[in-house]
């Protein structure tokens, strides 16, 4: 059974497609990279998978997965850093899945939060306001929250952008751990060397799927060139699927 199945999925904004005619399946436990040029539709795809936007066409079959089974880390720019919350409370929101928004955090839960914070190397930062953290520290805190969310599908949008090498290494180890726990991980990435090294499967996106399969196949130079050309040729103002051109 697939964790996620896409059937001729078109996603977009105001009825303008941003990415279209996606067909494919992500198996449970897959470790999938989503790559492609700027504007290729990668973030849009993750938003569609998590259900933040509804497809304009086709359908996304999530099988038995409920909304709480899918965790989503948006791009750093989408997070409001001025929100007055400290590291502990931010990480503790990962428990909402179980406790509910007003469920309260008991002693055992507080220990779990502390454990998750330790797991990302942020012990001592519990009472720091998130606005005072470096980009890498904030990303560590957000990964700690994902640890607590305990979701079977984890979507990461450019999780390693503008992050130092040591933090990347530590967070990548968490991704590997999630993979070993048979969770499904889908990550939007720009670092092709990292994708080749750490992600067995790749979806190369350029407003539609250029390639989807084993990473070595999907990232062949001719495929990457094709992706760039396709993204550049895409007409953002086109009405809903004016052409079905392949
Ligand atoms: N909220 C929005 N409203 C209207 N159009 C949008 C919105 N978000 C994205 N788009 C458009 O959808 C297209 C795909 O954008 P998307 O952010 O999915 O690309 P991406 O592959 O994630 O790009 P990048 O690598 O630059 O993050 C772009 O043309 C973008 O301008």
UniProtKB/TrEMBL annotation:
The keyword Acetylation does not apply. GO terms for biological process: zinc ion transport. Residues 4-232 form the ABC transporter domain. Keywords: ATP-binding, Ion transport, Nucleotide-binding, Transport, Zinc, Zinc transport. It holds the Pfam family ABC_tran. GO terms for molecular function: ATP binding; ATP hydrolysis activity. Belongs to the ABC transporter superfamily. This is ABC transporter ATP-binding protein.
């Amino acid at each position: 059974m697939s964790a996620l199945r896409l059937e001729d999925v078109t996603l977009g904004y105001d009825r303008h497609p941003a990415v279209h005619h996606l067909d494919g399946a992500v198996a449970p436990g897959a470790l999938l990279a989503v790559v492609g040029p700027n504007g290729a539709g990668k973030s849009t795809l993750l938003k569609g998978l998590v259900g933040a936007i509804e497809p304009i066409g086709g359908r996304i079959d999530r099988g038995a997965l409920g909304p709480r089974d899918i965790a989503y880390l948006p791009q750093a720019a989408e997070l409001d850093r001025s929100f007055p919350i400290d590291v502990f409370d931010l990480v503790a929101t990962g428990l909402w899945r179980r406790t509910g928004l007003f469920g309260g955090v008991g002693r055992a839960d507080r220990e779990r939060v502390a454990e998750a914070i330790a797991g990302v190397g942020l012990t001592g930062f519990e009472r720091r306001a998130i606005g005072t953290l470096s980009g890498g520290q904030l990303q560590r805190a957000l990964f700690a929250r994902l640890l607590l969310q305990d979701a079977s599908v984890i979507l990461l949008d450019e999780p390693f952008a503008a992050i130092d090498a040591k933090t990347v290494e530590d967070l990548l180890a968490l991704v590997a751990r999630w993979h070993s726990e048979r969770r499904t991980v889908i990550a939007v990435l720009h670092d092709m060397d990292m994708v080749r090294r750490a992600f067995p499967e790749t979806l190369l996106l350029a407003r539609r799927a250029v390639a989807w399969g084993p990473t070595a196949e999907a990232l062949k130079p001719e495929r990457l060139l094709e992706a760039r050309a396709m993204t550049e040729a895409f007409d953002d103002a086109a009405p809903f699927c004016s052409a079905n051109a392949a």
